[in-house]
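REQUEST ID: PR-0412
SUBMITTED BY: lab tech R.K.
PRIORITY: routine
TASK: structure prediction, single protein chain
INPUT:
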Amino acid sequence: MSLHPSVAAVRLPVRAGLADLAAGEVVAVACSGGPDSVALASAAVFEGHKRGLRVVGVTVDHGLQDGSADQADRVVRLLAALGVDETLTARVAVDPGSGMGPEAAAREARYAVLEQVATHLGAVRVLLGHTLDDQAETVLLGLARGSGGRSLRGMRPGFGVFARPLLGVRRDDTVTACQVEGLEVWDDPHNHDPGYTRVRVRRRVLPVLEDELGPGVAEALARTAEQLRDDTALLEELADGLLDRARREGGLDVATLAGAPPALRHRVLHRAVLEAGSPAAEVTRGHVLEVDRLLVDWRGQRWIDLPGPRRAARRDGLLVVGPA
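STATUS: complete
OUTPUT:
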């Protein structure tokens, strides 16, 4: 009996993503109970066990909805039925006063606890269920916010212990794969709440683009992210070198930075502001450009106020960023 195309579409990238691991190593799969992560967990068990890997299913309870603990228990039972070697539930507290918004705060808390889980398990990889559709939504949101290349490159296929093997797989395939395999999935009510920007992009904006521009918009957005990722990686590497050359005791050398191309200089300044303690979610391009004026449009400005609160100033040939 031939394998259903949607099941194959999910299993093939998972197989490739596990190909470099040795028998006996531990792989964790983050699973919310939705079709993307359930399809991923099923594929990880199938492909991982063929390679002799130990597969652990992990669900994170954010505590943001009534009954979230019960839902976490249902996911644990589903993961056990899929055949994972171990299940684990991690509960996190999402800080509503962090200034990041509920989605970003939940994401930060989730990644932090998954890193702790990986360390606890000795996992060499943590698989995440983001799909091509998630990537397209991320790029579109970056475009709408004018976030620049760093956001337009979208989600990375891998970083640290994390890997996203399904970034080239459509959500339709993960849904169909679960249906074909008879897997019961959870329809998260947050995925229908128009109060979330990503939900509006998913349910209103992308369908309009597909209707008006023709099919393939999601794939085109994902390709854009892939192309920009290589370019951005090179710029980040060059910016690292510039930052190292500009570092001096007490600040950054103005002459070194002022002579650099804006694409590198702005990256270095953004990094310097974050290193000084400004919250990443509050630092805008406008802040970076104002700090840049201290280098290339110096007219005796006293300082630039930054989130944090922090302050950037020019003193004795150095750019100094620190507490206000």
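NOTES: The chain has a mean pLDDT of 90.
REVIEWED BY: pending
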